[in-house]
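Give me the fold.
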Amino acid sequence: MVEQVASWPYSKQKNVISKLTRSPDDYIEDRVQFKINQYVKKASRYRWAYRILASAAAIGSATVPVLINIPGIDSVYPTILGLGIAIIVALEGVWHPAEHWRNYDLISAVLREEEMRFSTRAPPYDEKDGKDNNFAKFVDRVEDAIAKERGQTIVMRTAQPSAIGNGPPRAPEGRTDAKAPAALPKEPLP
């Protein structure tokens, strides 16, 4: 075993242990469960960021006309509120919290489904080829799904704001065979 020290000295993440071989139980605990937990945390953070930003923009947008039409209210207040709304909308365009929420929520669901299928020997892990082939297939599908999520996140973070408005980012084209996990759905979150 080779021990790799975490790159940031104040990181809460424990040291990473690189193993030459991993059992399915080790892989599920060290990689799959860890990634699921991380994606669930990230999805929750981005969900709340999106809800707070969108709610503030909606409430502010509804308040500006009311402030304009109330006699005796200085015009500086609706102007400042309008500026705040513009800043919030701009931040949503830069940070893309709704898209991040969607992607992290979907990848955690994909990983949970793969783990469940593997642990119950449901298709595509029901082959009689042997446990090692099923484990290799499981690792391949999990790592492919993680790589696709990373690709989507990188594209989203580096895309121009006008490109984001044309739909969710697409991961770079990868495997197209039937064994690859399905691409993350493209419909928006409720």
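The first strand starts at residue 2 and ends at 4.
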